[in-house]
From TrEMBL:
<dbReference type="GO" id="GO:0004553">
    <property type="term" value="F:hydrolase activity, hydrolyzing O-glycosyl compounds"/>
</dbReference>
<dbReference type="Pfam" id="PF12368">
    <property type="entry name" value="Rhodanese_C"/>
</dbReference>
<feature type="domain" description="Rhodanese">
    <location>
        <begin position="181"/>
        <end position="287"/>
    </location>
</feature>
<dbReference type="Pfam" id="PF00581">
    <property type="entry name" value="Rhodanese"/>
</dbReference>
<dbReference type="InterPro" id="IPR000757">
    <property type="entry name" value="Beta-glucanase-like"/>
</dbReference>
<feature type="compositionally biased region" description="Pro residues">
    <location>
        <begin position="475"/>
        <end position="509"/>
    </location>
</feature>
<dbReference type="Pfam" id="PF17773">
    <property type="entry name" value="UPF0176_N"/>
</dbReference>
<dbReference type="InterPro" id="IPR036873">
    <property type="entry name" value="Rhodanese-like_dom_sf"/>
</dbReference>
<dbReference type="InterPro" id="IPR020936">
    <property type="entry name" value="TrhO"/>
</dbReference>
<feature type="domain" description="GH16">
    <location>
        <begin position="502"/>
        <end position="846"/>
    </location>
</feature>
<dbReference type="InterPro" id="IPR040503">
    <property type="entry name" value="TRHO_N"/>
</dbReference>
<dbReference type="GO" id="GO:0005975">
    <property type="term" value="P:carbohydrate metabolic process"/>
</dbReference>
<dbReference type="InterPro" id="IPR013320">
    <property type="entry name" value="ConA-like_dom_sf"/>
</dbReference>
<feature type="region of interest" description="Disordered">
    <location>
        <begin position="473"/>
        <end position="518"/>
    </location>
</feature>
<protein>
    <recommendedName>
        <fullName>Rhodanese domain-containing protein</fullName>
    </recommendedName>
</protein>
<dbReference type="InterPro" id="IPR022111">
    <property type="entry name" value="Rhodanese_C"/>
</dbReference>
<dbReference type="Pfam" id="PF00722">
    <property type="entry name" value="Glyco_hydro_16"/>
</dbReference>
Length: 846
């Protein structure tokens, strides 16, 4: 069975990352070589001559793959049976392009796995059909750097560790430098953004580029940050890596020659043999029992340019690799890659196995709905606008705007649609306006001086970032945590128009035996049952860049005298203020009980420095996703709310399965959200009040939560932290409402008398994920309960200039400003009064 038999029709996007079922097991080799000088062979050999040599020898040995040849070198990936690949290596070893490397010290069938051959060819096991055909091409560069006519002044000499101030590190040396985690070390991923979305080394900078030739511009734009002179008195060390080493081989020389001139000591390092060689080495270390899987500095999967899609650690039975990619289709952790299924779109998307097999994942609505046509789809238009805007900002900063923008804009006009050009014109004008104004227009956000629309961008650590590169997560909304957390549960699609029935899994008594009005679940917190309540472990900030990270620690979640306490504390008390300000911290964990639960928004690992700090608050968020969920019923939580400035307690629910797609298409139910600020906080939205909300929309930026939001506050001068109150939800197939203390005291009341698509009045042509599912959809599926205390954040839940807030949502490093103002807010956090206190959780069948 050949790969071509599994491809889509002509002009349609091919799948990648598929498993072949033919059982034709083979080997894939990945190798490259640069020539320090033009090869001197007799007779003279041009790149065209070399092309014929490779075409003939590969065809003779039945190898497929890709080979790129130029006057500077060779870059190749080939596949075939182990016997065919081995015989090809033996045949070509005497030829001038291999002969001086002294690769072969044996000619047996295992030669590929001997030390020298293994290091050079980096063999991995795979199906022989990972390539459809053999492609041997002559190109200007074997991998385009984007710098015309650039030739390094020096190349590495064979058997030399150093040349031209570039140090080559073995996998063991690279591993040790990462493990030491020095604050003066900067790790740069030299690959494209879709490659790093699948996997990366811990602490790496992952540039949001679509092609390697864009990397020099990115590094130049961020030169001061990446290559600054000193960190705590030490010269910075730059570590680079890529898939097999070919990109870093030239990039590191360009970096060494372009930055930090007259440097006496070496400062640029690269992983020799790339990620693939590290994975090979680490797999052997794990197999030999010298290290554990958790010791690996590599996280996730390694993207490869063949039908396998990705490779990873070779693990033993019972061992599990840590996935960091998030499926574009369902939001779960994933290790696969596929292409957008739009008929003419080729964007690479992270996908799980179920979504790849389903084959219905698209990069954006224009591809899904078939409105893209032959031009750029919506997300590609936004990407081009983003790149053009970034170049304008860079030109402006270098005082070349007027002379260079016209030429850049003319080039843009010649390649893009009228619609994209009109959008770009607006961006150009806004970029100019931003230079003259101290702030942005009211309808735009400010990111470190750049004006932007939340429909297209987000602001990450003070850097304008296109929305599709924001970890594919929702734009911050005024809610406790908008991004549904991925689970291992498959995402089924509902069929028909089901009548909601309460469910509970597991239950003390089976649901079917519980009469109407019967108690399904009760927890009075005699103990903290970790089988019932699972802790989330993440620094992601709930999509709102909140200032806390969530952990499983008895200083933040504990039970005493029949009450559950969720109490925020200071991160500095745990890891120290020096680490928080300039070190690195991760919550990856080494066992199932303490593994990071979500890497969205850099949730598993963060670093301080450059004006930013690691999340300054430590708190807890408990959920019942693995123990019980309800589809309809009555839920009551008896709780006392926390007192303290900028505390954000929440009692809320998310769908167990995203039956209608990622947030907010599958809905969110906020029973109670409040602020810990005292009763002087404006509009009764401090500790004397709370809000109830439903979140829903076909896609993130269309969230219609204001249509299903209501607030409640006391009228007698009391606050909700003085005593326990009951926060309730009643939910049937016809209606959903929240209340306080008694069902007669209704807060939010939503009748399912019309569909939510009709209720939202979405624009014509908008995809309706709830079509044919009844008026209750998306609130016709199982939801689980979440209890948490967040702190602050850069969304608008705490509006600027209200209540004496010390930080601004429009400025970068908000958490740093918050921490620096701790003398203002910390005195208001008085012991257990600053904790959300839960007396009981009860669920009944209706």
């Amino acid at each position: 069975m050949s790969l071509s038999g599994r491809r889509n029709a002509k002009n349609q996007s091919d799948r990648i990352g598929l498993d072949c079922q033919c059982n034709d097991f083979g080997v894939v080799i990945l190798f490259y070589r640069y020539y320090p000088l033009p090869p001197t062979v007799t007779p003279p050999c041009t790149a065209k001559d070399l092309q014929r040599v490779f075409e003939t020898s590969c065809s003779t040995h039945h190898l497929t793959g890709k080979i790129r040849l130029s006057t500077e070198g060779i870059n190749a990936t080939l596949a075939g049976t182990s016997e065919d690949v081995t015989s090809w290596v033996i045949e070509n070893n005497p030829r001038w392009f291999f002969s001086d490397l002294q690769l072969l010290d044996t000619t047996d069938k295992e030669l590929l796995w001997k030390q020298k051959c293994r290091a050079f060819f980096k063999p991995t096991k795979g199906c022989v059909h990972v390539f459809d055909e053999l492609s041997v091409r002559v190109t200007e560069e074997v991998t385009p750097l984007g710098i015309r006519n650039y030739v390094p002044t020096n190349w590495k000499e064979e058997n030399s560790k150093r040349k031209n101030d570039v140090i080559y590190l073995t996998p063991a040396e690279f591993h040790e430098m990462l493990r030491e985690n020095e604050s003066s070390t900067v790790v740069i991923d030299a690959r494209n953004h879709y490659e790093s979305s699948l996997g990366y080394f811990k602490g790496a900078v992952k540039p949001p580029i679509r092609k390697f030739s864009s990397l020099p511009d990115y590094l130049s734009d961020h030169r001061d940050t990446l290559f600054g002179e000193e960190t705590k008195g030490e010269k910075k060390k730059i570590l680079t890596y890529c898939t097999g080493g070919v990109r870093c081989e030239k990039l590191t020389r360009w970096m060494s020659e372009s930055f930090r001139e007259e440097e006496e000591t070496p400062w640029v390092y690269t992983l020799e043999g790339g990620i693939q060689r590290y994975l090979d080495w680490m797999s052997e270390e794990i197999k030999g029992g010298r290290v554990s899987v958790e010791d690996s500095q590599w996280l996730g999967r390694n993207y490869v340019f063949d039908a396998r899609g990705s490779t990873g650690l070779v693990l033993q039975e019972g061992q599990k690799e840590k996935l960091v990619g998030l499926c574009r289709g369902c939001g779960r952790e994933a290790g696969g890659m596929n292409k957008c299924q739009g008929s003419t779109c080729h964007l690479h998307l992270v996908e799980c196995r179920e979504c790849i097999e389903g084959g219905e994942v698209y990069c954006c609505d224009s591809c899904r709905d078939g409105t893209k046509g032959k031009g750029l789809c919506d997300c590609e238009q936004q990407r081009h606008i983003f790149q053009f805007e970034q170049s304008l900002l860079h030109l402006t900063a270098s005082r070349q705007f007027l002379s260079s923008a016209d030429a850049s804009y003319a080039m843009y006009l010649s390649h893009h649609s009228v619609e994209a050009t009109m959008k770009t014109t607006v961006v150009v004008l806004l970029a100019v306006v931003a230079l003259a104004l101290a702030d942005c227009p009211s309808f735009l956000k400010n990111c470190n001086g750049a004006c932007y629309s939340e429909d297209a961008y987000c602001c990450v650590n003070g850097q304008l970032t296109q929305k599709q590169f924001c970890n594919n997560q929702p734009t911050p909304q005024p809610t406790s945590a908008p991004a549904p957390q991925p689970t291992s549960t498959p995402t089924p699609q509902p069929t028909g128009n089901p009548t909601p029935q309460p469910t509970f899994n597991p239950t003390p008594t089976p649901t079917k035996d519980v009469p109407v009005g019967g108690l399904l679940f009760e927890d009075n917190f005699d103990t903290l049952n970790l089988d019932t309540w699972q802790h989330e472990l993440t620094m992601g900030g709930g999509g709102n860049w909140e200032f806390q990270y969530y952990t499983n620690n008895r200083s933040n979640s504990y039970v005493r005298d029949g009450v559950l306490y969720i109490k925020p504390t200071l991160t500095a008390d745990t890891i120290g203020e020096d680490t928080m300000n300039g070190g690195s911290f991760n919550v990856w964990g080494g066992a199932p009980a303490d593994e990071c639960t979500s890497n969205a928004f850099w949730g598993c690992e963060r670093s301080g420095g450059g004006g930013n700090i690691i999340n300054p608050i430590q708190s807890a968020r408990l959920r019942s996703v693995n123990s019980f969920s309800v589809n309809g019923g009555k839920v009551e939580i008896r709780a006392k709310l926390p007192r303290g400035d900028w505390l954000w307690p929440a009692i809320w629910m998310l769908p167990k399965r995203n039956s209608y797609g990622a947030w907010p298409a599958s809905g969110e139910i906020d029973i109670m959200e409040s602020r810990g600020n005292n009763a002087t906080y404006p509009n009764h939205m401090g500790i004397d009040g709370f809000g109830s909300t439903l979140h829903w929309a076909p896609y993130t930026t269309a969230n219609r939560w204001p249509l299903t939001h209501q607030e409640w506050h006391t009228t007698d001068g009391s606050d909700l932290g003085q005593k326990f109150h009951t926060y309730g939800l009643q939910w049937t197939k016809d209606r959903l409402f929240t209340y306080i203390d008694d069902p007669k005291n209704v807060v939010l009341d939503v009748k399912f008398d019309k569909s939510f698509f009709e209720r939202g009045q979405f624009p014509s042509g908008t995809h309706n994920p709830w079509q044919g599912r009844g008026n209750a959809a998306p609130f016709d599926q199982e939801f689980y309960i979440i209890l948490n205390v967040a702190v602050g954040g850069a969304a608008d839940y705490f509006p600027d200039d209200v209540g004496g807030k010390p930080w601004s949502n429009k400025k970068p490093a908000a958490s740093t400003v918050f921490w620096q103002a701790r003398n203002q807010w910390l005195p208001t956090w008085k012991g257990e009064d600053a904790a959300l206190q839960i007396d009981s959780v009860k669920v009944w069948k209706l």
